[in-house]
Amino acid sequence: MIRHLTPADYTAMPWVNGKGTTIEMLRLEEGGRLRLRLSRASVVENGDFSIFPNIERNLTVLTGPGFDLAGAGVQLSARPLVPVAFAGDVPLRATGVSVPSDDFNVMTDRALPRPEVAVVTGQLHLLPGDLLAVYGLGSAVVNGRAMRAGDLILADEALQVSGQVLLVRAFGVTLNP
User: What are the Cα distances from residue 105, in Å, to 73, 88, 141, 147, 160?
Assistant: First the structure.
């Protein structure tokens, strides 16, 4: 199965900490528990990140110079097109924000294996299994289907991809009809 989502399908919502807005592209729950969430947000100033107990996070800066994430014993650099993983329940603060940076977020239930997140340019063939999410960073083609920057293709079947995309393989998660 393949689903093609566009920005018209996404939902804007406030951050848990009330300091910004998230564009939620996909949310999968099971028994009232978050399994997977894909979203975009803008970090416009230094400040605390929201806390998400029992959630693993992965953030990829899409635009802007990026920023640092700092907390007790944690120092991470969030730089353009380089995925960075961290625990959602560790208090972190964005620092070094000089101009706004937009980022792509992957949140998964800690009980699941950590997802694979990569920025890919060119052509690749993806084998089926688990959930594949392909987010367009520019014009791209997935299984002959054109997608624009900001589109999201979800699949559980083999994919032929060309263009520049952010790719997520979420293990232990299936695409519900």
Answer: 22, 11, 22, 20, 23
Which DSSP string do the residues of 75-114 spell out, in sequence order? EEEE-BT--EEEETTS--EEE---S-EEEEEEEEETTSPP
- Spell out the domain ranges in the chain: 8-109, 116-170
Residues 6+ apart with CB under 8 A from 18: none
Output Rg (C-alpha) for the chain, integer angstroms. 16
Q: pLDDT (tens digit, 9 = 90+) per residue, 31-75?
A: 889 999 999 999 989 999 889 999 999 999 999 999 999 998 889
- Cα–Cα distance, 51 to 170 (Å, whole number): 21
**Cβ atoms 28, 173 nearer than 8 A:** yes
pLDDT at 176: 63
Q: Which CATH class is domain 8-109?
A: mainly beta
The dihedral built from the CA positions of residue 37, 42, 43 and 45, taken in this order, carries a sign that is negative
Please check whether residue 119 is in contact with residue 166, taking contact to mean a CB–CB distance below 8 angstroms: yes
**Rounded distance between C-alpha atoms, residue 106 and residue 118, angstroms:** 11
Instruction: Give the architecture (CATH level 2) of 116-170.
Output: Sandwich (2.60)
